[in-house]
Amino acid sequence: MTATIQRPLLVGIAGASASGKSLLAKTIKQRLPIEHIQVISEDSYYFDQSHLTMDEREQTNYDHPNSMEHDLLQQHLEQLKQGNSVDAPCYDFTIHTRKPETVVINPTPIIIIEGIMLFSHKKLRDTFDLKLFVDTPLDICLLRRIKRDTVERGRSLESVIEQYKTTVRPGYISFIQPTKEYADVIIPKGGKNTVAIDLVETKLKAMC
Ligand SMILES: Nc1ncnc2c1ncn2[C@@H]1O[C@H](COP(=O)(O)OP(=O)(O)O)[C@@H](O)[C@H]1O
Ligand SMILES: Nc1ccn([C@@H]2O[C@H](COP(=O)(O)O)[C@@H](O)[C@H]2O)c(=O)n1
């Protein structure tokens, strides 16, 4: 593997919210030389809502594909594939919109993109060289999400439960679960499945 590879290899990791996508991406990243791999989150591509009031932002369905700027993400991945840098948005979950600043992403030999609806957009889906789906039971995801969203995303327990019932669970059933069929590999236990991570590591090293 060399750091001068021209065309980055794009790995997509999809699955339910709090299924363990980020942990899986982080664990794979730790297996490879730091300068060869980076992780991008689909969450950064939620639409900017700075023109809306906080009340209006709270009404948005964040588990519907229309809440994400997938065309921009796809264009950015295409530019990275061609060896160009991109200016990626930064997202703030506590205020449901993008931060004013952007971040420069430079191409690396391997780029992992993780997010719930990555495989729901055909053109975006077709951009990936390897597609992984983290398959975690929804009750486990809910327990993890309650903990994470109250601790890290500034949410109350009541708001997490209400959002889960109205949009998160229905969104998973309508838009995320059906995309499992597009995955090359379905991974139970996510970031703690060392057998699957060993296999992905071997595959990535062979593909670069
Ligand atoms: N296999 C696992 N076992 C136990 N906890 C896990 C596991 N995978 C993830 N977690 C924890 O669950 C929470 C959500 O995981 P995360 O990777 O952020 O999910 P996602 O990126 O799919 O939303 C985090 O606190 C993470 O540490
Ligand atoms: N302003 C927002 C934007 C998104 N969400 C929720 O985030 C989930 C996706 O992110 P994961 O890291 O959990 O994969 C998604 O289920 C949205 O409901 C939000 O609550 N607020």
Percent of sequence in beta strands:
15-25%
Which structural category do the helix and sheet elements fall into?
alpha/beta
H and E order: EHEHHEEEHEHHEH
**CATH homologous superfamily caption:** P-loop containing nucleotide triphosphate hydrolases
Q: Look at the structure and give the CATH class.
A: Alpha Beta
CATH fold-type name:
Rossmann fold
Which range best describes the helical content: under 10%, 10-25%, 25-40%, 40-55%, 55-70% or over 70%? 25-40%
Bound molecules: adenosine-5'-diphosphate, the ligand Nc1ccn([C@@H]2O[C@H](COP(=O)(O)O)[C@@H](O)[C@H]2O)c(=O)n1
The average pLDDT value, as a whole number, equals 95
Gap from first CA to last CA: 6 Å
Strand order of the largest sheet: 2-5-1-6-7
Q: Please, could you describe this protein's structure?
A:
With 208 residues, the chain is of the alpha/beta class. It has a single domain, classed as Rossmann fold, CATH 3.40.50.300. 38% of the residues lie in helices and 21% in strands. The protein contains 7 helices and 7 strands; from the N terminus they run βαβααβββαβααβα. The strands form 2 sheets. Strands 2-5-1-6-7 form a 5-stranded parallel sheet, covered by helices on one side. The chain has a two-stranded antiparallel sheet with strand order 3-4. The longest helix has 20 residues. The structure holds adenosine-5'-diphosphate and ligand L45E5XJ5. Adenosine-5'-diphosphate binds next to helix 1 and helix 5.
